[in-house]
From TrEMBL:
<feature type="binding site">
    <location>
        <position position="224"/>
    </location>
    <ligand>
        <name>shikimate</name>
    </ligand>
</feature>
<dbReference type="InterPro" id="IPR036291">
    <property type="entry name" value="NAD(P)-bd_dom_sf"/>
</dbReference>
<comment type="pathway">
    <text>Metabolic intermediate biosynthesis; chorismate biosynthesis; chorismate from D-erythrose 4-phosphate and phosphoenolpyruvate: step 4/7.</text>
</comment>
<dbReference type="GO" id="GO:0004764">
    <property type="term" value="F:shikimate 3-dehydrogenase (NADP+) activity"/>
</dbReference>
<dbReference type="InterPro" id="IPR022893">
    <property type="entry name" value="Shikimate_DH_fam"/>
</dbReference>
<feature type="active site" description="Proton acceptor">
    <location>
        <position position="72"/>
    </location>
</feature>
<comment type="similarity">
    <text>Belongs to the shikimate dehydrogenase family.</text>
</comment>
<protein>
    <recommendedName>
        <fullName>Shikimate dehydrogenase (NADP(+))</fullName>
        <ecNumber>1.1.1.25</ecNumber>
    </recommendedName>
</protein>
<keyword id="KW-0521">NADP</keyword>
<dbReference type="InterPro" id="IPR041121">
    <property type="entry name" value="SDH_C"/>
</dbReference>
<feature type="binding site">
    <location>
        <position position="83"/>
    </location>
    <ligand>
        <name>NADP(+)</name>
    </ligand>
</feature>
<dbReference type="InterPro" id="IPR046346">
    <property type="entry name" value="Aminoacid_DH-like_N_sf"/>
</dbReference>
<feature type="binding site">
    <location>
        <position position="68"/>
    </location>
    <ligand>
        <name>shikimate</name>
    </ligand>
</feature>
<keyword id="KW-0560">Oxidoreductase</keyword>
<feature type="domain" description="Quinate/shikimate 5-dehydrogenase/glutamyl-tRNA reductase">
    <location>
        <begin position="127"/>
        <end position="188"/>
    </location>
</feature>
<dbReference type="Pfam" id="PF01488">
    <property type="entry name" value="Shikimate_DH"/>
</dbReference>
<feature type="binding site">
    <location>
        <position position="92"/>
    </location>
    <ligand>
        <name>shikimate</name>
    </ligand>
</feature>
Length: 294
């Protein structure tokens, strides 16, 4: 399937809004690096138009798409999902297999691949992980940890029922707890993962001390704006290994590109620097718009 106008294979990111997505920067970089005659675009599609848009992906010249908020759960019902997407309960990647539209979720593998790259052998001897939050990102993280064989995964959330839902979804390895119980587990926590928006630009801070974490603990934060959150800064000050949200963003993009364009791309320092520069430029513009310095 090729774009009827340009004659090249094309994919896109679908969201509402969608202009903030870094996916075009990532995929266009890979298209250039691998010399592929392709394109990757942004499609801002409101929820009421999403089903019609997805059902006509081929007619619009697309071989597939990334799906971002608020469409990830709806995407699951509009395509044939693999077992991973069904288990996580959301799809972020669509592709045409002949005339059949298929769906998967690459967030779990992106999270695990980033951990493997940022903190090699992080899972060696790991018995206890603590996941903060119980939303869609937490589902992907927990899926990845269960798949890797982590025996105890505590999920802390202010609404306990949402954490309990992850326990029902992913099995006995998942231990739901209330948010206020999390600090009491730090002494035994070898992997701490923030899946909430706390600490993100424009959101409240994640106020949590890391003093009780073991010296060999790994801290991961899915937030990538700012690139170094207060949580990751505290982990750095303690000398703990860290995995940031930008790394996950880059690694989760790999399989989609392979499905659409037939080449499995590498996450390189060059790509990371490219996206870091874009994030820095966006932060500068936001500060100017708010009347701040820079």
């Amino acid at each position: 399937m090729t774009d009827s106008v340009s004659g090249t294979r094309a994919a896109c990111v679908i969201g509402w809004p969608a202009a903030h997505s870094r996916s075009p920067l990532i995929h266009r970089h890979w298209l250039s690096v691998y010399g592929i005659a392709g394109d990757y675009r942004v499609e801002a599609v409101p929820p009421e138009d999403f089903a019609a848009f997805v059902k006509d992906l081929a007619g619009r010249g697309y071989v597939g798409a990334n799906v971002t908020l608020p469409h990830k759960e709806a995407a699951l019902t509009l395509a044939t999902p693999d077992e991973r997407a069904k288990k996580i309960g959301a799809a972020n990647t669509l592709w045409l297999d002949g005339t059949k539209l298929r769906a998967t979720n690459t967030d779990a593998e992106g999270f695990i691949a980033n951990l493997d790259a940022a903190a090699p052998k992080w899972d060696r001897g790991l018995e206890t992980a603590l996941v903060l939050g119980a939303g869609g990102s937490a589902r992907a993280v927990v899926y990845g940890l269960v798949d890797r064989g982590v025996p105890r995964i505590y999920v802390a959330n202010r609404t306990l029922g949402r954490a309990e839902e992850l326990g029902r979804r992913f099995g006995a390895a998942v231990r739901p707890i209330h948010w206020d119980e999390a600090r009491g587990l730090f002494g035994a926590t070898q992997l701490l993962v923030n899946t909430t928006t706390l600490g993100m630009v424009g959101q409240p801070a994640l106020e949590i001390g890391l003093g009780r974490l073991p010296a060999n603990a790994v801290v991961a934060d899915l937030v990538y704006a700012p690139l170094e959150t207060a949580l990751l800064a505290a982990a750095r000050e303690r000398g703990l290994r860290r995995a940031d949200g930008l790394g996950m963003l880059l690694h989760q993009a790999v399989r989609g590109f392979a499905l659409w364009f037939g080449v499995t791309p590498e996450v390189t320092p060059e790509l990371r620097k490219l996206v870091e520069a874009d994030l820095a430029a966006a932060a500068t513009l936001a500060a100017k718009a708010a009347g701040g310095p820079g």
